[in-house]
Inverse folding.
């Protein structure tokens, strides 16, 4: 009886692990950052394309970010800003040969402005989550690498919100 | 006294005309379509790039469109769908030579699914508004031109919503 019970518990634990492995990661990131679960519903800030990475990007922002973008007050971005940048591989459209469209999702990057908490990484928390399961980047404190390329003179953010009507 | 009054009225009318010319167009389109004023706040469906037009695009949708996109039920798109496609000229980023980013806004296209009202143009109303002032395209019933290129086998919509986590 005891063996059956142990086997049952082990079996159920395994099933739970497998289920969790297929579940999108919405927990805290390694740097402690909490990403609101509704980030996919955020409004658009901009789009971009990168030839060296063969990718198309969409840049979304939380309400603080959108208010700042629309008011043209993004250098620096205000405290509490969160920006999500979605990266897809790009491919030629099957419907139009001169168009480039998203292929598979590669990763989503999130940056959150908290000058005190993230003082050591330019006042921004940096998070990168891979694939549909949003697996966290396993390099500790990779934000320091981001800062090596992101433009300090523009508050470490590449995106300049474009014109909207 | 009468001449002064006439001059005043003419002057005020001129000022009002100038002010209106600088106001973003949010009224009904030539085909009668009403575009909700908050369309800029809609959620993202996809992004795209076109080499032949040297442009970057963002595709947003109203709630009906987003629900359909996320459920993978977009062929046909449901009645009431409105999709907004924002077109910017593209340029090389000043901050990263391999990146392409939006330049000036060219136009915004809107399509609304109403199979009865727009039966003669594939079940979609077609609207194109130019520039920051959103000036309506002055070609009558240009939707017929759109249909000549948009894929009928995909409900006349090029966009295939990409993966999101």
């Amino acid at each position: 009886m005891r063996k059956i019970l142990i086997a049952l518990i082990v079996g159920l634990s395994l099933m739970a692990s497998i289920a969790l492995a297929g579940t999108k990661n919405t927990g805290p990131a390694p740097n402690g950052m909490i990403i609101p679960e509704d980030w996919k519903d955020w409004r658009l800030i901009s789009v971009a394309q990168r030839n060296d990475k063969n990718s198309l990007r969409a840049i979304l922002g939380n309400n603080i970010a959108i208010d700042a973008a629309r008011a043209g007050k993004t250098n620096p971005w205000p405290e509490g800003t969160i920006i999500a940048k979605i990266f897809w591989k790009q491919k030629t459209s099957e419907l139009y040969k001169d168009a480039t469209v998203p292929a598979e999702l590669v990763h989503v990057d999130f940056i959150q402005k908290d000058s005190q908490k993230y003082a050591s990484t330019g006042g921004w928390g940096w998070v990168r989550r891979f694939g549909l399961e949003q697996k966290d980047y396993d390099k500790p404190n990779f934000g320091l690498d981001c800062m090596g390329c992101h433009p300090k003179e523009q508050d470490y953010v590449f995106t300049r919100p474009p014109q909207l009507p």
Summary: The beta strands of chain B are 43-50, 55-61, 82-92, 99-113, 124-130, 135-136.
